[in-house]
Amino acid sequence: MSTYHIGIPGQPWGEAERAEWLALQRRQRSYKKEVLAAIERLASRFEVQQYGELTVGDERFPLMAIRNHWQEGLPVVLVTGGVHGYETSGVHGALQFVEQHGERYTGRVNWLVAPCVSPWAYERIHRWNANAIDPNRSFRENSPAEESAALMQLVAQLREHVLLHIDLHETTDTDESEFRPALAARDGKPYEPCGIPDGFYLVDDSESPQPDFQQAVIAAVEKVTHIAPADDKGEIIGSPVVARGVIAYPLTQLGLCAGMTAARYKTTTEVYPDSPRATPEQCNAAQVAAVCAAMDYALS
Question: Where is the Peptidase M14 domain (predicted)?
């Protein structure tokens, strides 16, 4: 059974356990200085909009998106980062894409980037929101996660028109040391380690797979950082490897961010920032390479 420091093994958390967990969370970095300031610098070149506000106690976090200058009739691309706030390169990779490559797609595609979906969790370097809910299992009707609900509302009118949605994530060593044990404890289940893959991988949609698209992204990212190998069971994080560097989930069924639209092309990136073979700069660059490759393939 779980030996996590909160709760009783085998019993799901109640309000007391959630409150105990929340009291332990500490602000470790600044959304305002690291994310909002970067978005503000981009406002002279692109359209910036606030699509909601996250309220946690007496804290207020504006939820921000960036888009290029839209033209009627062009396909729509959605890029999301920071659904899990602790996954740093998802946030800064999304911002770096806009800064370095956003103008390159003018007249070819209407893109919308939500770089930091979960700002409270970004500051706490955490996977969950303040209610101990995983936003990336909450992209569904009547979502329990305010962050997910706000993004779904932003995208609602575009949902059927999105050609590509790429959702930027990381798999970190803390998944195994903190977040998966916490999840097991929260849900009253035994914790079963499944290892951390060393390298980049993708999550395709098992309900509508696009293997050639996924491999085009893998090929581009491989120029920047290494691709995660399958383990001795032929798996990555407990899921069968369906192609080199690719696993597949039923994205919409699981309430995952990448499954929130009717896009033909969907993928979730997973960078491994704790690898001795990767730097933070490489991780950001890998996310950028993935976005550009995904867009180029979808538009080809």
Answer: 27-300
Provide the pLDDT for residue 293: 98
Cα–Cα distance for residue pair 88/279, rounded to 1 Å: 12
Encoding tokens for residue 212?
Answer: 């050639």
Q: How far is the CA of 292 from the CAs of 21, 253, 299, in angstroms?
A: 39, 27, 11
Query: Please, what is the average pLDDT of the chain?
Result: 97
Q: Is the pTM of this model over 0.85?
A: yes
Q: Is the pLDDT of residue 1 over 60?
A: no
Q: How far apart are CA 54 and CA 89, in angstroms?
A: 21
pLDDT at 170: 98
What SS3 class is residue 111? strand
State whether residue 8 is helix, strand or coil: coil
Torsion of CA 271, 274, 276, 282, to 10 degrees: 40
Q: What is the CATH number of domain 15-299?
A: 3.40.630.10
Quick one: average pLDDT of 174-179? Answer: 95
- Terminal CA-CA length for the chain: 50
Beta strand pairing status for 59-67 and 47-56? antiparallel
Q: How many helices (H) and strands (E) does the chain have?
A: 10, 10
- Give the number of other Cβ atoms within 10 Å of residue 187's Cβ: 12
> Where exactly are the structural domains of the chain?
15-299
Alpha-carbon distance values, 189 to 127, 160, 296 (Å): 18, 37, 43
The total of other beta-carbon atoms located within 10 Å of residue 132's CB is 19
CB–CB of 165/263 below 8 Å?
yes
